[in-house]
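Interim report to the steering committee. The following record documents the input for Alpha/beta hydrolase (501 residues).
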Amino acid sequence: MHPSRRHCVHSGTSGRLASTTTDDIDALVARLKDRPRVVLHFHGGLVDDALGFVTAERLAPVYEAAGAEPVFFVWSSGLLEVLRGNLPQILSEGVFQTLLNRVVRFASGIVFQQPGSRALGGFTVPSTRAVASELALLRTGQEPYARLTPPAEVPALSEAERVRITADLAADTELAERNREIVGSVLRSAPATTAARDIDGGRAAVATLMSPGTVAELAAETAEAENRRAVVTSALLVRKTVRVVSAVVARFRHRTDHGLYPTVVEEILREFYLANVGAAVWDAMKRQTADTFAAASEPRAGRCFLDRFGQLLASGSRPRVTLVGHSAGAVFIGNLLADLARRRADADDPLPEDFRVHDVVLLAPACTVGHLAGVVRRQAELFGRLRMFTMTDAAERADQLVPFLYPRSLLYFVSGVLERGPQGETAVSPLAGMQRWFTAEGDTGGADDARDLRAFLRADATRTVWSPADGGPGLTSGARSHAGFDHDPEVLASLARMLAD
């Protein structure tokens, strides 16, 4: 192993050992013997392998100066490449902009009216031109509709409202033209046929990053139409757009919205673009952090490390262990603690009764509230102190993932687009690192999990550091961006103080 990687456990697909060997892990764990303090550091999901090694090289001296022997788990997600490459392109697509205008038009007309007005006389919607004017605020760095406040109660979309929106969209010539462009882009990539020429009308194809399944459905529906030259909006496109409007209204009804404009963006991405905004990468990344502890014929990095570390503990060595997880590293930590719990209950591979992790430190954790709630329920068994450094909601809102297009942070995006529900369905999920879920009683998702985690965090004020904050030694953070926590001098000083406590 290269000398700069001697602190690293490098895993690849399914958590298998990558450039690290079992001999490397033997040597790494041997260095932990008789060390008073050990830090296991887990970087976030926006970090690829190369940057993971750079992070380890940068932070190793910090931990060593604090008297701890560091171990860095280096793994790759590829999420950053997807977000950087696809998201700006998607948000700038002509079809996305048309969908955005239409959904904002209807959603704003419904959400911001008093419920009684809707019941008495339907709802009033702004013109497409008025919506375009409001959306133009993005070019000046302002968030559209941010100044408006919805009523306390937002009823669900009624059947009469659904029928009215469907009729309006079905007669929308611009939406029909967008459908022709999407279908034309598919047919132009296939062998030329009369049908293809008719649908495309001879115009240049317009590429889209819509999910391939959605594009295929639209193309199939159009190919079956009797009059392929008619400018009629696809019934499927209309149904999907109405479904997006309904989902936006439902999120305001259940108070899981992120503001009108970000919520509309999130729901369009869920309905039309999910395959190309990183959802599969996010799911695979989380599976990888679990698979690395699985029993398998090929060595898995996490399991191999804990096997050797368990042998070290069995020899009588008792280093004080601190776990540090940045962003998706919090998911990794949860899975590591779950494997420690398994080992404690395994008669053939017992964890010494007197061993517990000393500290769990989470930096802008991207795990769900439910995931962290499951972790803290096992505190007495598995670890001592927990401290979470993460941004205030004001700082979270200011940390824009895609400036001028998506005015919220990565955690907002993961919560609003990438997470899934208990049955594997796409579903808005509050993340542990978002102050919004902590302070807004309605923005919870799993009520029991949210209640238990709130109670745990509120029971001790030192368990949360809402950045930027100056709470004294060990409780100070200056980070104002999601990526900034493991670079911030104040956070690193707080970590050093915790290691010294």
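Residues 133 and 144 are 9 Å apart (CA to CA). The committee is asked to note this result when reviewing the revised timeline.
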